[in-house]
Amino acid sequence: xxxxxxxVRESEIRRNEQGEVSSVNVWPRKVQIVEVGPRDxxxxxxEVVPTDVKVAWIDRLSEAGLQxxxxxxxxxxxxxxxxxxxxxxxxxxxxxDGIQYSALVPNxxxxxxxxxxxxxxxxxxxxxxxxxxxxNINKSxxxxxxxxxxxVREAKAAGCFVRGYVSTAFGCPFEGAVPVARVREVxxxxxxxxIDELSVGDTIGVATPADVxxxxxxxxxxxxxxxxxxxxxxxxGMAIANICxxxxxxxxxxxxxxxGLGGCPxxxxxxxxxxxxxVLYLMRGCGIETGVSIEAAVEAAGFIEDHLGRPLPAHNLRxxxxxxTTT
Length: 327
Ligand code: HMG
Ligand code: MG
Description:
By secondary structure, the chain is of the alpha/beta class. It has a single domain (4-16, 28-321), classed as Alpha-Beta Barrel (TIM Barrel), CATH 3.20.20. The protein has 13 helices and ten strands. Helix 3 packs antiparallel against helix 12, helix 8 packs across helix 9 (209-219) and helix 9 (209-219) runs parallel beside helix 10 (239-247). The site of magnesium ion has 7 residues, from loops. 3-hydroxy-3-methylglutaryl-coenzyme A binds at residues 40, 43, 73-76, 79-80, 104, 106-107, 109-110, 113, 125, 136-138, 165, 167, 201, 203, 231, 264, 266.
């Protein structure tokens, strides 16, 4: 658990009639949402979304008040054809002041492409499980470290904010359970490289709150909570429960995808990310500030839903586009 004495006000401590502490609410008052729909969402779509639509959608995300948007990936386009237009998308989006527009980069080649089109926030990525790492980026974990080390070094030298993802942190589609010690090992390597933020990914959406407590407990022994992000996919419907578990540790950064789009083409069975509008509903209900209105988010999710021509799974999108619009 984070150091409570630094985080808790007297008003957040609940006492019983004898004045003894009965429980403590350390949930943060404010969280950041990292909108990964344009990258994690669209990378997994069977249909390649036209560049014009992507650009119009991302501009709407800026207007909706999202402050951090993961726009695309500068990976090998043969591996992710859906994002082969990364350079053009980055060049054409309207970049509003104060919004972070980031992109995935697997190596220095990807970084150079990103920087060439004005990107100043990048994310490197690798997995905690050997098989997924190899299937996703064609290298063993040991071979990946020097590649990412060089990428992070060059990215920092170019003045970029750098996020590091640990994927398959809660389970691997090929190996099953992933030991927490493996997650810690990969996380520590990334932190030592000098990343600014660590995003821990439940790539295939299998975690439960008990897993979240276990993993977050271990990670927070070695890093400050303000640098930890969590990235939940919702395959088994546990993502919102998992976020609640992470809030108890004071985690303040959550990745989410409008409409609940998402998945990894190299992780069979992975479904969408937790939906941004559902995370916003949770936060609003719990009195936690996000800076984003659900109405604006639903409108932006509706735009891409209309384009894709099929209903997206987000609960708030379904409820608000249907009859149930009382909140
Ligand atoms: P490789 O084939 O081993 O690469 O792929 P290589 O270094 O041997 O080079 C082979 C060719 O790729 C060369 O071209 C390079 O120039 C080119 P050729 O000489 O044959 O014409 N190449 C590139 N081209 C453009 N941009 C680049 C680039 N790098 C090399 N950056 C590589 C290795 C990592 C590049 C490849 O495996 C790849 O692109 N993988 C990406 C997979 C991916 O994007 N997966 C989804 C994202 S991860 C995810 O979704 C999980 C996450 O959401 C968190 C979670 O859910 O847990 C983040
Ligand atoms: Mg993902």
